[in-house]
Amino acid sequence: MEAFTTHTGTAAPLRRSNVDTDQIIPAVYLKRITRHGFEDGLFSAWRKKPEFVLNQADYQGVTILVAGPDFGTGSSREHAVWALQDFGFKVVISSRFADIFRGNSGKGGLLTAQVDQEVVERLWSLLEVDPATPVTVDLAAREIRAGDLVANFDVDDYVRWRLMEGLDDVGITLKSADDITAFEARRPMFLPKTD
Amino acid sequence: MARTLAQKVWQDHVVRSAEGEPDLLYIDLHLIHEVTSPQAFDGLRDAGRPVRRPDLTLATEDHNVPTIDIDKPIADPVSRAQVEALRKNCAEFGVPIYSLGNVEQGIVHVVGPQLGLTQPGMTVVCGDSHTSTHGAFGALAFGIGTSEVEHVLATQTLPLKPFKTMAITVNGALPAGVSAKDLILAVIAKIGTGGGQGYVLEYRGDAISALSMEGRMTICNMSIEAGARAGMIAPDETTFAYLEGKERAPKGAEWDAAVAYWKTLQTDADAVFDREVVIEASELSPFVTWGTNPGQGVPLSANVPSPADAVDEVDRIAIENALTYMNLTAGTPMRDVKVDTVFIGSCTNGRIEDLRVAAEVMKGRTVAEGMRVLVVPGSVRVRLQAHAEGLDEIFSAAGAEWREAGCSMCLAMNPDMLAPGERSASTSNRNFEGRQGPGGRTHLVSPAVAAATAIVGRLASPADLEK
User: Fold this and answer.
1) Cβ atoms of residues B101 and B108 within 8 Å
2) DSSP structure string for B334-347
3) Burial of B222 (0-12, 13-18, 19+ CB in 10 A)
4) Which of B87, B100, B116, B127 has its CA 20 to 30 A from that of B297?
5) Using CB atoms within 10 A of its CB, is residue B302 exposed (0-12), middle (13-18) or buried (19+)?
6) Nearest Cβ partner of A107 from B54, B148, B227?
């Protein structure tokens, strides 16, 4: 995984709450067995509408998405993270993320920066007035900077460390293989097996 | 120190714990299906890693499978390739699989419990958010993403930060005609789609104790719709009775040892939850959703809400968007909403009790003119049981379509879909925009309301049929 320290790019305001993972990528796109190429499915229903923010000329090439509360609710599909990344997003800013989506983002290297809804509203206003405003998301300082706005964001300490180091979880866990083997020896006999 | 049920199960599975790091948690049962696993197996292959415990892993085919003509190859080549990839991966890595045509095939969350694989005190994961279903047994069960699927395949563990705990106490008794589905829809409407975020919900109280295992599974299934990581119900005699004699349940002396352990899985009397919610069961009635997230629900007797009822600006926009998408006018009685398709099935309500309830309502009646009704058992075993009880004949005589087992119309991944603009009453779990097909409009309901709606043609409860 690529290490993430700081990112500067342009951003799109998505004025919606409860953006569920079926909106981020509908189930029909989940039939693929590859890990990449999901950008065509991103927000596919909304992208059919000309007025949708990502269809507007002012927001082409954005790398940061600023959304309303409860972003990523619903299905556990990691394809939602892949679709955002394949489209070019590096960061999603919201006042509240669904747990599974947030966990998946951390695994894949998409930063989910949680801020107060008031910060989201200020970013929305800023980006609607001047879509070209560069937005910096500084993971080391846990800080978002855009125009005259400077705001801290929340990110889990451990996820932040992993993102900054670009580490892969399986590799970290396999260092504890002896602990896992020892635990397995202690498991009760009555537990079921599938074979 | 006094502990909650969730804390007990958690602590019994900690492999490794260190300051400033997530706990490394052992996983007792890993269920997989075709949609969220192919990229995980690819990851193993790339790294040259085996599946650590194929004997604790079980695969089934559910999301993509058609529910008619299952003896023929899957028509959609992309769906077929995904199912074939699962079969190939399971063969290569030695993972047991129940494929289409096998008597144990079905929706992953129906299959685990009916085999007796889901037991109290276990940790259960699956690359599917409705894994919360298994919490009905007092297991800590939660959905994971594909990276985590790969992690569990490789290590049989997951690094996780402890969840917060929330008690949802349901006092009293549910009125006649009010089901587990109505209760959980009311809970979600009360705490919101984000209300459970970061929490394990423990459902308790007299109304919960009185539920069957199937009702408890419906409740725990939809915990994710309140944003929760998991839902749990402490195991009791109802749980033990359900498990005893099941194929994969412990036998003989192991059964006794297991029950002795399971009986310790109660929240201690003086344990403290991070949050508590209390609901009076007697105040509940049949519940339906009107909007585009599962928290946008009202009693069937109520009217479509108005943007003027919004608690804030974000909520006002959400209501407006939902009314537009659903093509509903504020103030319309829910009972006046005309429905085109009824879907009875899914991991929420595709079990035998659900089908019995629906059959009782539809027995001797005929579905409304022009109404499409799909009845889809959650597993082959459920289908066979329904046949043994003659339920399939009741559905067919009423004019409903009786199908093979699978996820079916819960999500638009297989041939069972809504057409654009079509409106459904569905016993599934999500009313998101396009969930049941692009442009489709979904009202989440209980099996009883679904069946009554099929007869009346508008949203209705069985009580409306007797008038």
Assistant:
1) no
2) GGG-B-SEEEE-HH
3) buried
4) B127
5) middle
6) B148
